[in-house]
Design a protein that fits this description.
By secondary structure, this protein is an all-alpha fold. The protein has 2 domains: 106 residues; 212 residues, MFS general substrate transporter like domains (Growth Hormone, Chain: A), CATH 1.20.1250.20. It has 14 helices and 2 strands; from the N terminus they run H-H-H-H-E-H-H-H-H-H-H-H-H-H-E-H. The protein has a two-stranded antiparallel sheet. GO terms for molecular function: transmembrane transporter activity. It comes from Staphylococcus aureus. InterPro entries: MFS, MFS_dom, MFS_trans_sf.
Length: 357
């Protein structure tokens, strides 16, 4: 009965989210169509005005002096008619221009002193989608990126072997200690859908360095933690950093590499992503067997500092950024579904473990 209720609950939540997202997509498409129709109507009216003026000019050149005078009179009459029609349609055109200005303001970099604004101006002058910093190449950017991604992925599997000793030291149950793993994955799942918004708003360099700083601070908190709540805070900070670093790899490779070289770059990234989970349990087992479990996190803290220094020197990549509007309802719905699904499976797994005992 409990299993059926959980499954039906998850399915119902997914259906509701899908219906709401479908309605939002349709409303956006309808708004875009209306904007396109307004733009098309204004362009046609402008083109007709230009054609009429050009025709008048050609007739003026080919006609005699008397015809020119008549054409001038006609032009005055036409201008009066156009002014009347413009006055009649003024509110509608002003509304369209107001909407266009609102869209431009929404997607423009508003702070001229910000790094994003200065980078955008430089990118416009060079007619590119991105620029490198001084003394930086694609190879250096890829090396710094893979280094950061490697430690983020390594951290996911590093805690598996050490979890029993952590539970014993903190005097917590296995289900409570499992939240150190589940919470990490939950925060990862919450952040990954938001990264598309972050990648449009902030430069890749800023996101990379901020993610590494959060990850490194989280590692230090885990290393010095004396109880479960403090360690959980450290794991959440680690998850926030890892949740930005992992999707950043693919988007950076697609941005800086041409199509004929993306395969090799993606293959190199794949090696790092496969190697890190394979090393994690072995390294964790060796540390737990010979040292205290917090040595793992001290090691991640030191490696994180090195990754920050490497990224600060090598990862100088700036892309064209905008000021997009966040889809707040969609983000909230996705987060609710993820939290409910993770919680349901976590509780169901705990009950199954009790029944097996």
């Amino acid at each position: 009965m409990t299993t059926t209720f959980i499954i039906s609950y998850i399915v119902l939540a997914l259906i509701i989210v899908g219906v709401i997202n479908l309605l939002l997509i349709r409303l956006r498409r309808k708004a875009k169509r209306q904007q396109k129709e307004q733009h098309f109507a204004t362009r046609q009216s402008n083109q007709s005005k230009f054609k009429a003026s050009d025709l008048d000019r050609t007739t003026d050149q080919s006609s005699q002096h008397t015809a020119r005078e008549e054409a001038r009179i006609d032009n005055k009459d036409n201008q009066n008619q156009v002014s009347l029609t413009d006055h009649a349609k003024g509110s509608e055109q002003d509304q369209g221009l107001f909407n266009d200005n609102k869209d431009d303001e929404a997607f423009a970099a508003k702070n001229p002193e910000s790094e994003e604004y200065k980078v955008n101006e430089k990118i416009k002058k060079e007619h590119k989608n991105y620029i490198f910093g001084e003394g930086v190449s694609r190879g250096k950017i890829l090396a710094a990126l893979l280094f950061g991604m490697f430690i983020a992925i390594l951290n996911q599997t590093l805690l598996n072997v050490a979890l029993p000793k952590i539970n014993t030291e903190f005097n917590i149950s296995a289900s409570t200690g499992q939240w150190l793993m589940t919470g990490f994955m939950l925060v990862n799942g919450i952040l990954i859908p938001i990264t598309a918004y972050l990648f449009n708003k902030y430069s890749y360099r800023k996101l990379f360095l901020v993610a590494l700083v959060l990850f490194t601070i989280g590692s230090l908190i885990c290393a010095i933690s004396m109880n479960f709540p403090i360690m959980m805070v450290g794991r959440v900070l680690q998850a926030i950093g890892a949740g930005v670093l992992m999707p950043l790899g693919s988007i950076v490779i697609i941005t800086i590499y041409p199509p004929e070289k993306r395969g090799a770059a993606m293959g190199t990234m794949g090696i790092a992503m496969i190697l890190a989970p394979a090393i994690g349990p072995t390294l964790s087992g060796y540390i737990v067997q010979n040292y205290h479990w917090n040595v793992m996190f001290y090691g991640m803290f030191i490696i994180g500092i090195i990754a920050i220094l490497v990224g600060f020197v090598w990862f100088k990549l700036y892309q064209y950024t905008t000021n997009p509007k966040a889809d707040i309802p969609g983000i909230i719905l996705v987060q609710l579904v993820l939290v409910l699904c993770y919680t349901a499976f976590q509780k169901r797994g705990t009950k199954a473990g009790v029944l097996l005992r």
